[in-house]
Amino acid sequence: MNSRNLFRALTKPLFIHNMCKRQKGYKVVKRPDPSTLKMPNLADAPSIMDIIKEKVRLNGPLTVAEYMNIVITNPTEGYYMKKDVIGETGDFITSPEISQLFGEILGVWFYAETQKMCSGKPLQIVELGPGKATLLIDILRVLNRYGYKANDLSLHLVEISSTMQLLQANRLCVTHKETGLELPYNHEGETASGIKVYWYNDLKKVPNNFSWYIAHEFFDVLPIHKFEKTEKGWREILIDLDANGKLQYRIAANETQSVKVLVRPPLDAGDRMELEISPRALGIARQLANRVDQHGGLALIADYGHNGEKGDTFRAFHKHKVVDPLENPGEADLTADVDFSQLRISGSMTPGEENYAVVVGPVKQIEFLERMQAGVRLQVLIDNAKSDEEKEKIKAAYEMLVDPKKMGERFKFMAFYPSAMAPILQKFPPLGFSTPK
Description:
The protein is of the alpha/beta class and about 425 residues long.
């Protein structure tokens, strides 16, 4: 055999049957149908305290944000997931539940400010954390007087609690149902007048159209990180277990990732020794600002809070009383005052490639309501009351909203407008945020 034939023989493919046969290195597994999956039996679900103890055992002390997230949103035992907590029989009461006047004034504000930019039709009304839907009901009553019909608007509710979704649906709709996983919304319904209603578990899933965004007592329940300034710099406050298995605060020995990421200018400006920051609140404020600027509309934030002067506001409410937030987790509402100075930073930007919003406020609730001529509406309600007892109830409810020692000064209002509205607002200042001339 010459060298050429030898080379061909060596380079010819060699097939060894069976030895070189390729075998499958995986097993085909049929995925379960998501629509058939069910939640575990509630009777078998671990308690909130058991969940927290196991988290600490596996990962060490929790941040306050992690603790709040577990206590508030656990699918089976979370505070907002299993019961109606709003009202006289619950743990706290909100302004719309106190007086119909509150929601009506907000409806008038949205309508009046919208007239400065367009007709406001078609309109999406988007509420974050709608509670019992009382605020929406009062706003719809105002829009009916302004001539809005069913085909002029739709309602979009951002709500993570299936319990609250069902409560809202029963109050708003004559028909409603759950939807499939292929849709961005997980519940839909229709009001008696034909208005379409949709429920979402995330603001990102709400369609990007001209909208009114309402966030009333929403930001105060978003998880916060707590920080304290020490001789070694900023350190995070953590939640740990003591020798008896009871929850307690402790301060981190070293910088946590949250300190490195969050505690920097402008959020740590000034000489503050304590700081609370909610990354989720900052993210949602930025979303609202961008949505308003890109697609038109208005965003109104109403909550109890401050303008950057406070640093330790984390607490809990049970049966309308302040209680220790580490006692009986899951049985009380966890909350922290909203830092409106942080929302302003997140919502407003220097004009450029990224979108931004014109941010106005915060102003105190008493100032906002009085500038919106709430006293005029109050008198109408009093005049239409059927008895002296009813008149006194109406007056008392209004006093609770505006009394500086109650809700009048603790609650604040802030609004986001599209950036294109800046010159218009110079000529026609925002109602409620400026003194009428």
